[in-house]
Specification:
The termini are far apart. The chain folds into two domains: about 160 residues, serine acetyltransferase, domain 1 (Orthogonal Bundle), CATH 1.10.3130.10; about 90 residues, 3 Solenoid (UDP N-Acetylglucosamine Acyltransferase, domain 1), CATH 2.160.10.10. By secondary structure, the protein is α/β, with parallel strands linked by helices. The relative contact order is 0.07. The strands form three sheets. Strands 1-4-7-10-13 form a five-stranded parallel beta sheet. Strands 3-6-9-12-14 form a five-stranded parallel beta sheet. It is about 45% helix and about 10% strand. It is globular, with a radius of gyration of 25 Å. The chain has ten helices and 14 strands.
């Protein structure tokens, strides 16, 4: 006999309830999987820095570095002191809290002795906040380099608002300062935030000089021990990376120089790959598109791939 619609509905409801009966077993298996030395579970540990909070700190830093561009409300000469006073105080408190979380987590992870995490977090955050005027001056040169290097740029405003290269470089300069202050986790969270937003992957350990310009930017990779001089310009798809290593070599070279040096006034065109810790691109050199380099280049050198033969059918 065919079930009525009401009976069909009841049958479906009971079947759904039966499925829910399996949930406790799944929960038990997940709990068991978190035991031992699982690298995928952060249980019975100190709180880690919150990714959302670090992103909020980064956004607040943009409001301090570029006042009037990313802030809500109008800023003028009358309320500028009030604006900076409020924003700097809030920034300092947010950063100090997250730095303390990062320090405490690192201490527990490495079984280190107590280093007064809250106090040290505030000291580090104060020192970082003192660097903001210097970072503003450096970023002003980056904006100028972008304007002078890109004829499509109509104004500084356009660059600050919309250029992914400047966004990534700004986040990098923030992250690099914290990296230099030996803050765990937070610099990498910042750099990966910029990576996700722009497609530009700059490790916070990379050292980058003044007046740096990334044009277009998508697919750019800059490794941890890269050193870049002043007035360098690179284009989309450029990799400043390390040579591929075996597992044993990776462990041996974790703290060694693995990425290239790019000296002053170098231009690296799209798709170029420059690898290795001993590789130095000499000052004022030009590296053409799609070039692959694992050896040094003297100053004032142009390196291009021979023009390929085109076939038309």
């Amino acid at each position: 006999m065919k079930e009525s619609k009401l009976e069909q509905c009841e049958t479906a409801r009971k079947k759904s309830l039966g499925m829910c009966d399996e949930i406790p077993q799944i929960v038990e298996q997940l709990v068991q999987s978190c035991g031992g030395q699982s690298s995928l579970a952060h249980v019975d540990s100190e709180p880690m820095p919150a990714k959302a909070a670090v992103i909020e700190i980064t956004k607040t830093a943009f409001q301090l570095l570029y006042p009037g561009y990313f802030s809500q409300g109008r800023i003028n000469r009358v309320n500028l002191v009030y604006y900076y006073g409020q924003t700097v105080a809030a920034f300092f408190e947010m950063l100090a809290e997250q730095v303390a979380f990062a320090l405490r987590h690192e201490c527990r992870r490495r079984s280190m002795t107590c280093v007064s995490c809250e106090e040290q977090g505030k000291e580090i955050s104060l020192q970082f906040t003192k660097e903001l005027p210097r970072l503003r001056a450096v970023l002003a040169k980056d904006v100028q380099a972008a304007f002078e290097g890109d004829p499509a740029a109509k104004s500084y405003d356009e660059i600050i608002f919309s250029y992914p290269g400047l966004f990534a470089v700004t986040v990098h300069r923030l992250a690099h300062q914290l990296y230099r202050q030996n803050v765990p986790l937070i610099p990498r969270i910042m750099s990966e935030y910029a990576h996700g937003e722009t497609g530009i992957d700059i490790h916070p350990g990379a050292t980058i000089g003044e007046s740096f310009f990334i044009d277009h930017g998508t697919g750019v990779v800059i490794g941890e021990t890269t050193i870049i001089g002043n007035r360098v310009r690179i284009y989309q798809g450029v990799t400043l990376g390390a040579l591929s290593l075996s597992k044993s070599e990776v462990e041996k070279l974790r703290s060694e120089k693995r990425h290239p040096n790019i000296e002053d006034d170098v231009v690296v065109y799209s798709g170029a790959t420059i690898l290795g810790g001993q590789t130095v691109i000499g000052a004022r050199s030009v590296i053409g598109g799609n070039v692959w380099l694992t050896a040094s280049v003297p100053p004032d050198t142009k390196v291009f791939i021979k023009k390929p033969e085109l076939i038309y059918k």
